[in-house]
């Protein structure tokens, strides 16, 4: 038990509560805070040792958020009114301080059981309550079960032989030692070029002897454009924050910007070049999410953007071999159908002779030895530290991993074996009184986290309040509503270029996982309307009792 966690019954066995929330990141804290205000007794079960969710787990070198503040924070005035950031894109240490500040304001920890991993759960029909079991054998009974476990709760490892034989240090990014790893003067291998791999490579290259990046797919990185922020300039902007937070929910991805109302070829080549230049130079996701509105729909438009990106990027890479691996002339996939990482010196640090990139599509890894990594061309490269930045069984992996059973005793992992079915991306047929956010078939990976959890959180909270007000003890999604939602999620996605790319958005990063769109691609405003329509029409798509 965690001595800092608060009141004495936090770790009690046979806990009875109104609402059991799993996960103490942005989503879980929001739900707890708002539901408490409505008088519900709430408890959070959290597998980690502190608040922050992904920012509790992510402490690998260079871990930093890629949505800028204040877009990446709560809209709650009691949190932002006396909080200031030091950088536009804060690192994990500052994000952890933000959660300390949140704790000071909202007093969350007294109702959190840390070090508590949920391993079983079923809905008990006679009492209309969830019975939840934890890894260390405690049980809890709760009217509602709310899952706020995020999209990256189950880490993914490559299936290479010998991973356990390596004699140096080897860590997955999401399980990096909290005290850090001293990489000074060491030879580092970074496996994977998602946002995580790019960040680890950039940061470790500052002190390591060498950094070798193992790349399967080139990341179409965009410039971060980090900026130091002063307290004065933030203070001045705060009177505009309420409007700012309202406006962020009117954009496709819950950001401060949106796609422009023009198609790529509406502009002349000169206008287009100038537009691309400006968006690229602004940094962050502007070249992605504030690009022409046909970027993610039209192949030719997308290719135009890719060619611009490749021109800009190739010009920065001095070695022709590295250039063709990192920024090939032919796109590895449509631009933006995998999340672009944000970089500051990724290509520059790879220009240095001691650092290298290995194309593991051309020469796959065959084994990890005691001293290093062997590829199919017979080369053994030796290392002191291996950083596995190989991602997650994203979106569905965490929820399938909790031993949750439906009313007929079927596990969620079984229900979702051949594909994912949800209602509104927040509820599942056969799982009464259970809701989840920032997960399957919600706006999740296509949205800014705090924006998404506030939209979904408010809907869940309003729904639970309605159930209490109307003395309803039981709510379940219908099978028909699930079929309909899956159809919508698929149709929206099929209009875009996303299905053509093997990404974790499509479940394609995990061997054997069904290939399907795991996120709602209609944008946050349309999503919110769909959810509100259901609630306002007497909880359409649900049965209640
Ligand atoms: O994971 P990823 P991540 N053999 O899945 C490669 C958020 N995030 O941890 O592309 C060889 O994106 C894989 O290759 P490929 C953000 O939303 C945000 O980086 O599948 N390689 C890929 O290159 C992000 O999208 C921030 O061909 C293997 C990499 O590993 C999400 O989290 C920071 C492999 C995995 O990339 C996940 O990011 C970090 C194998 N067997 C994360 N398996 C910020 O806010 C996988 N790969 C900045």
Automatic annotation (TrEMBL):
Alphabetical list of Gene3D superfamilies matching this protein: FAD/NAD(P)-binding domain (3.50.50.60)
The keyword NADP belongs to this UniProt entry's keyword annotation: yes
GO terms for MF: flavin adenine dinucleotide binding; N,N-dimethylaniline monooxygenase activity; NADP binding
The keyword rRNA-binding is annotated on this UniProt entry: no
SUPFAM superfamilies per the UniProt record, alphabetical: FAD/NAD(P)-binding domain (SSF51905)
Domain of life (superkingdom): Eukaryota
Keywords (A to Z) from UniProt: FAD, Flavoprotein, Monooxygenase, NADP, Oxidoreductase
A Pfam family that the UniProt record links to this protein: FMO-like
Cofactor(s) of this protein: FAD
Family to which this protein belongs: Belongs to the FAD-binding monooxygenase family.
Protein name: Cyclohexanone 1,2-monooxygenase-like protein
Organism: Pleomassaria siparia CBS 279.74
